[in-house]
Amino acid sequence: MSALGVVLIVIGVIALAGWVYFMTWLSDKTRIIKNFEKQQEAVLKIATPGDAKIIEVGASDTDGDVNVALRLEVTPQFGDSFNAITVWAIEPMHVAEIQIGKSIPVKFVDIPAFNSKEKTKCIYPDVAWAKQYSPREEFTEESMKTVMYRYK
User: Fold this and answer.
1) Most exposed among 112, 135, 139, 152, judged by the fewest C-beta atoms under 10 Å?
2) CB contact at 8 A, 74 and 47
3) In this predicted model, what pLDDT tens digit does every residue of 49-88 receive, in sequence order?
4) What is the domain count for the chain?
């Protein structure tokens, strides 16, 4: 067998291995996204509805959607209002919907935060053009200054 033949076989084997690895990686990412969407649907079924008035628009980042930090005054259907910081992923066409003073329908639920025994209020936008950026993230004053895409 010529040297060219050996090189072509080696390149073919490497390309095949790379393709198999990529397809496995893609399959894992798709499964993670589907599981996340199922979990979010289940949480939203038990979440408390309300309205959120935008008090402050903080830092933003982009990863296709526009990830924006928001300080909200949340008014539940029943109960007292409270302030919360959250980060939502907004479809680019709807960024103009995010304005100080504007109210947006929301749902919220207390869930365990990452690496904590404490629960945090997770504020989900109840509109089709936005979604919760990271449901179990505990957003703080620092989130208002810097939004870093978690999975870059």
Assistant:
1) 152
2) no
3) 999 999 999 877 777 788 888 999 999 988 899 999 888 9
4) 2
